[in-house]
UniProtKB/TrEMBL annotation:
InterPro entries for the chain: DGQHR-contain_dom, DNA_S_mod_DndB
CDD domains reported in the protein's UniProt record: dndB (cd16412)
Protein name: DNA sulfur modification protein DndB
Domain of life, source organism: Bacteria
Gene source species: Caenimonas terrae
Length: 367
């Protein structure tokens, strides 16, 4: 390890560790220094000449908004960086024969810090500080490795991201304590006679043998469609309106009741009908928002018309191109709209201009 000129250096309090026979260091960095210390590879370089992926600038504002919306409750994992330059580790209170773990990491002023993992966090923090400078002295953990050339940096990036798996949408809803819609969806999954014991809270897809009929992520999206934000933030009101709406819907879809009564299995219903799938729940929620603008007696009268819908997958004449594409359940926003249109027409509800435009395009494509 090279000696560092102590007149001109960065000094980080650090803990020294060893991975794969190589030393690394864990420290804390004030947020205000991130943009000064860490830089990105030249965006104009070819990918094979860079040590990291190009910055996806569309992600930065989203992460910055997360920080600003949760200034007293945000959480970030460590940034990983390589140091290209001489360093020196000075242990605190070293003991003979005992490996020194805690001390100061001294880095030459002209050294370069290259982000191996966390470039979007770094850019978002820089953007957030423009609006919330009071966060400048808060810190983020940084893991420092010694730069050993481009190939090693590229391999580090590959290794750090090799086993990264994005959590399912359902478990994201389950663990998110901030989402108003998520709170309502979780409440329904635990207390509603319609959904209790039938909602998968960890996975966003259901296997053919699963005993669950719905996913928590699907119920969350349906809740977002059903209730406006001003209602969602009033949890007691939102929970009651949701309970009442889905209870009324369930009365018109006998297969949901058959599953609760063990007269049909969840797998049989998911295989033969479309009404328990995410796109249809979302479409029901969207249609429900329009329906709930009517009087309670009118809502009760109209919602009974759902029983006249043939929800069978085999009913391709109705659902192909709307909820299904090529016989498989669709997922696009356009398909949600077209499925909602069919439900709205059944309920005698008028279509919004964008819904009518989608309907006209769908009808033209079928001619």
């Amino acid at each position: 390890m090279a000696n560092v000129d102590t007149s001109f250096r960065y000094v980080f309090p650090a803990i020294r560790g060893v991975q794969a026979g190589r030393e690394y260091y864990v420290s804390m960095c004030p947020l205000r220094l991130l943009s000064k210390l860490f830089h990105f590879d030249d965006e104009e370089l070819l990918p094979e000449l860079r040590a990291q992926r190009s910055l996806n600038k569309s992600r930065v504002p989203e992460i910055a908004r997360y920080i600003l919306a949760n200034k007293t409750d945000y959480t970030f994992s460590a940034i990983t960086a390589s140091i290209d330059g001489p360093i020196e580790f000075s242990p605190v209170n070293p003991e003979p024969g005992v490996p020194a773990r805690v001390g100061s990491l001294k880095v030459a002023m002209d050294a370069k810090f290259i982000v191996n993992d966390g470039q979007h966090r770094r850019a978002a923090i820089e953007a957030a500080l423009l609006e919330a400078p009071e966060l400048a002295d808060e810190t983020i953990a940084v893991v420092f490795f010694v730069d050993r050339g481009l190939e090693r940096c590229q391999q580090m990036f590959a290794d750090l991201n090799r086993h990264a798996v994005k959590p399912s949408a359902s478990i994201g809803v389950l663990y998110d304590q901030r989402s108003a819609a998520g709170r309502v969806a979780k409440h329904l999954s635990l207390t509603s006679p319609v959904f209790k014991n039938l909602v998968e809270s960890e996975r966003s897809t259901l296997s053919p043998r699963s005993r669950k009929l719905f996913t928590l992520s699907a119920l969350n999206f349906a809740t977002l469609e059903l209730l406006p934000e001003k209602v969602l933030v009033d949890f007691p009101r939102a929970a009651q309106q949701s309970q009442d709406f889905w209870s009324a819907v369930s009365e018109q879809i006998p297969e949901w009741t058959y599953v609760r009564e063990a007269k049909m299995t969840s797998g049989e219903v998911r295989q033969d009908f479309i009404h328990c799938h995410a796109i249809v729940l979302q479409a029901l929620g969207r249609a429900g928002r329009s329906l709930l603008t009517h009087s309670p007696s009118e809502v009760r009268r109209r919602i009974k018309k759902l029983r006249t819908l043939d929800w069978a997958r085999s009913n391709a004449q109705t659902w192909e191109g709307r909820a299904m594409v090529g016989g498989s359940m669709a997922k696009s926003g356009q398909n949600v709209t077209l499925t909602c249109n069919e439900i709205k027409k059944t309920l005698g509800l008028s279509l919004e201009p964008d819904e009518q435009a989608a309907e006209n395009a769908w009808a033209s494509a079928r001619r």
